Amino acid sequence: MNIYDVHFLFDDETIAPVTVKAAEGETILEICEENDIHLNHNCGGVCACTTCHIYIEAGMENLPEMSDKEEDYVDRAINPRIESRLGCQCRVLGPVTVRIPDQGLIIGHEH
Ligand code: FES
User: Fold this and answer.
1) Ligand 1, closest atom to CA 47?
2) SS3 label, residue 108
3) Most buried among 7, 13, 100, 110, using CB within 10 Å?
4) What residues contact 14, with CB distance under 8 A and at least 6 apart?
5) What pLDDT band is residue 106 in, cutting at 50, 70 and 90?
């Protein structure tokens, strides 16, 4: 199984950037959970909400293409950008750099 570096940056500047290892095929949401990185996931990771919204700062080519359903939810997320994705839908197929939005701004967030 291939293992890749996943770099995390945070809009919340109180959290330091971190690099973790991830197995090919894991989702960004799963990688966050394994590494105690807080990323909301109100629908439980089934592409039915916007709370796992993330930005891919590098390595978009190492993720599967966005489905129409994912695109639909991304459009409804807070501050969507061209590099927006849903963390639960991004299976890593190579190294990526992920920016986590400030989780305190998300309605329904829990710590
Ligand atoms: S957790 Fe709801 S879409 Fe990802």
Assistant:
1) 3
2) coil
3) 100
4) none
5) confident
CA–CA dist 33, 57 (Å, integer): 20
Give, for ligand 1, the residue of 27, 38, 42 to mutate: max count of ligand atoms closer than 8 Å to Cβ. 42
CB atoms within 10 A of CB 104: 10
16 token code pair: 């330091």
Residue 95 amino acid letter: P
Distance 86 CA to ligand 1 centre (A): 6
Specify the pTM. Answer: 0.94
Ordered structural domains, the chain, with CATH = 3-103 (3.10.20.30)
List, chain by chain if needed, residues with CB within 6 Å of any ligand 1 atom: 41-43, 45, 47-49, 51-52, 73, 86, 88
- Counting every residue written for the chain, the total comes to 111
